[in-house]
Amino acid sequence: MSYRDVLTFAVDLESRGVVSDVTIGGSVALILHAEPIHTDDLDLFVHLRRTGTVIDLGPIYRAAEAAGAAVDGEYLRFGAAKFQFIVAGTELEEEAMAQAETLEVWGLRTRVVSPEYVIALKLATFRSKDQTQILHLLRTARRSIDMEALEVILGGHGLLARWHQFRKQWP
């Protein structure tokens, strides 16, 4: 199975009310805005119905297993296609989902985190691979990164100092 199959499954979950606001994030979002890079999985940001503060991923896992997915650590897997559902848990993730772009991906209209929010989310985690991917996106983006909008986003989430540190290290 492919990432298209995963996305089709996610759209089906959305149509059944199991999740809402399915939004492609992570490295796949980066790839959709820039030159391809290697990635191991597809990250799908979603909203779930909550009862209090407990997040119950059980309905997703039950539906995935019923559809033939296997559990692989923190991931689900349809054949070689590894994926995970990420319930938006920070203001930055919520904002990235709210401001997502609608694109045609693998023949399906879907929401994708914008390049500016990809950068912001990767700055928030700031692992070594995130820094490399930010640089890749800045150098190979299919459209110009809106630096003014990016700085507004970063300023709103306390990430401007990290951005300036990154830009100093990777001019």
Give the secondary structure arrangement, pairings included.
Elements (H helix, E strand, L loop, with lengths): L2 H13 L4 E6 H8 L8 E6 L10 H9 L3 E3 L2 E4 L2 E7 L3 H8 L2 E5 L2 E5 L2 H11 L2 H13 L6 H10 L3 H10 L2
Parallel strand pairs: 1-7, 2-5
Antiparallel strand pairs: 1-2, 3-4, 4-5, 6-7
Structural commentary:
By secondary structure, the chain is of the alpha/beta class. It has eight helices and seven strands. Strands 3-4-5-2-1-7-6 form a seven-stranded mixed β-sheet. The chain is globular and about 50 Å long. The termini are far apart. The mean pLDDT is 95.
List the defining traits of the structure above.
about 170 residues; 8 helices
Care to give the gist of this entry?
With 171 residues, the chain is an alpha/beta fold. 48% of the residues lie in helices and 21% in strands. It has helices at 3-15, 26-33, 58-66, 91-98, 115-125, 128-140, 147-156, 160-169, and strands at 20-25, 42-47, 70-72, 75-78, 81-87, 101-105, 108-112.
Q: Give the strand order, joined by hyphens, for the main sheet.
A: 3-4-5-2-1-7-6
Count of helices?
Answer: 8
* Alpha-beta classification: alpha/beta
- According to DSSP, the number of beta strands is 7
Distance between the termini: 40 Å
Helix content: 40-55%
Query: H/E series, N to C?
Result: HEHEHEEEHEEHHHH
Mean pLDDT: 95
Largest sheet: 7 strands, mixed
The whole-angstrom Rg is: 16 Å
